[in-house]
Design brief:
about 150 residues; alpha+beta; five-stranded mixed sheet; 5 helices
Length: about 150
């Protein structure tokens, strides 16, 4: 069984930059079966590795008892904004405040770099969580599934 959160409300564990992106990918897949079904590991690894090498992304993990249980990343850095994404917590560890802790860590990391943290949310349930973390709705993004545009 996982330890209960600390008395002060901050769950135990250590947040650090991710060293092993393969472990991050495995956690993302375990936490979100849709991510696992639609994401090619080699393509994901290539993109995230490239962005990290060029200072365009940061990926963080949270470990408890040497086990990675949660992750989040700044997956793009622009001139004044950081796009936060990839928040995932191992299903066995959910409901203990880890996702909120990771969200705060990534937002603070973005702010420390002079960047305003932004999120892309596609599901209302996740959007409600983001609002509870202090984010406000700022519009919608749309995705086009075009092979050849006739517009």
């Amino acid at each position: 069984a996982a330890p209960a959160p600390c008395a002060d409300g901050v769950p135990p564990g250590r947040v650090a930059p991710a060293e092993n992106l393969g472990a991050v990918y495995a956690l993302l897949c375990a936490a979100d079966p849709e991510f696992a079904a639609r994401t090619d590991y080699a393509a994901w690894l290539t993109e995230v590795s490239h962005k990290r090498r060029h200072g365009l992304a940061d990926v963080y993990i949270l470990k408890v008892n040497n086990q990675i249980i949660s992750t989040i990343g700044i997956y793009f850095k622009g001139a004044d904004r950081a796009i936060l994404a990839g928040l995932a917590t191992d299903p066995a560890w959910r409901g203990r405040g880890y996702a909120r802790r990771m969200m705060a860590h990534a937002a603070n990391a973005a702010l420390a770099q002079g960047l305003e943290p932004w999120l892309l949310t596609a599901e209302e349930g996740v959007a409600a969580f983001h609002r509870a973390c202090g984010f406000v709705d700022a519009g919608f993004w749309s995705k086009g599934n075009f092979r050849e545009s006739s517009l």
